[in-house]
């Protein structure tokens, strides 16, 4: 296929009008006729007669062709030979819902396969699908593994041929999409569906409630936080069962030789039961007003969730006793003598007043951030639990101090609306019980779906127009040869017609 590197030079071809005008302007002089007498001739007004006919048409055509060849030479023509490929494209199926995805998009996928597309799995190596085994089984069990569908996409342009069409089919569940959206060529098309009639329930956490006064031994109850997930919602409910080993409703409680207790649902993994009392030391320090909001949230946790929490508040340095949590609301460093399994303190840094929102990875009402301190530590050394709308860390730990939590804002209405949020006690509960969850972490039990506009990767229009590597051959040497031949022919013809009217 012919392509021009500098197509703008084709405008030089309009110069063919020059030899055309010159040939039209050429006027042949009339012939002189000899007469014997002028007696019969009468005097008339002098009339001008012009002969506007093209002359020397072969010479004109050669000169026009010469100008067109020069214009083509300036445009730098090349011949592009497209590389041929036996495969027309890829069809990528997410392995977690592979069979169900195929059944949902069966007409479209079958049509692509008949056109020569290759069926592969959406994973790191884009493994080809063994169609004989894939189509030969009717097993459609719900998947248990989780993955990030965005993770292998940056490798897609390296694995697949540039410009080759790719069609991706997957479920639209939130747990499969986390991190930063990749930027992909526009030749990649993504289609999703919502699995029907699917619900998930799992044990989010479980803890032992202390026995009532007067009871001894291992008596007491177990408080269970259950998560119920559907494509449209994620709801938590709470249940109470006796603190004894055995089956209780749909729960199974087991005690192990190491003294730990665990609970599970039928066919699900065991979840450890927290049998300790959460002792919290709250040091008001420089921010006694902030401490009041924490006290109110912990009081709500104790009354609503019946979580075994003991809160001790100090206005001076707490005594050196073992604590489950130390909340240090001060700019001063934490004394080394204090012993705590987990520490929460404020992050000191440059304050930003750019309005943003708080992202915790949990379903909650929007929380506005009015002020927050900027974190300059490289993020590859952090475990981020909360972020702002700009993706910057708000609550984080470092990899070398995983139990030392730093909050880049404050528990104050002047800094955010978190303390006025109804979800504040639930967020604090998750932090106290589980140490928090990373903002971009996924939960296998969370099957909420997200809108297609949220999961679709960003499209790069420029990169979508690229093609497979082509074999290009410059045509300038050929143009030079043709130009030289035409020029010689033009000169020879002009010399031959030298005795004519126009040369």
UniProtKB/TrEMBL annotation:
Domain of life: Bacteria
Domain (Aerotolerance regulator N-terminal): residue spans on this chain: 1-77
Segments crossing the lipid bilayer: 6-25, 60-79
Keywords on record: Membrane, Transmembrane, Transmembrane helix
Coiled coil: none
InterPro entries: Aerotolerance_reg_N (IPR024163), Double_TM_dom (IPR011933)
Name this protein carries in UniProt: Aerotolerance regulator N-terminal domain-containing protein
Organism: Filimonas zeae
